[in-house]
Write a structure and sequence with these properties.
By secondary structure, the protein is α+β, with helices and mostly antiparallel strands. It is 42% helix and 18% strand. It has 5 helices and 5 strands. It is globular and about 35 Å long.
Length: 139
Amino acid sequence: MNLSAARQHIAAAMERMRVLYTKPVFDEWVILTPAARHGGVLAYAGPRLEQFRQKLPAEVEPLLAQLAGRNLGIGDFEFTSAGDGSRHDALIRLGASSYLVCNNLASSMAEIRQEARWLKAQAAFVDLSERFRSDPLEA
């Protein structure tokens, strides 16, 4: 899958999650790849583009700590309950060296999971991960 198609699929999944949850599950997402120019950011959607790049290393730390020593396959995902505030909540491996990192700036995953509607919204997230498992991002 190319980057343009990946962005469209991600945006559609975020909208589907919003509808199922009745409010945004993630209000910020980014496609990252360590090998890319511009600090590894291939795409960003959210309200704080200007601050995002400089805060990224600290804000992704809870997810990285949780993933330490693990090797995710393409399409595998992880959530962290330590992603409160601007710290990132979820990650999907999109391709050989690319990842989708998602965030809710107002709520943690622990708070999101308290809502029964999360189970339906989570299905849209899993569908997105399966899409990349079958057609990885070529970045």
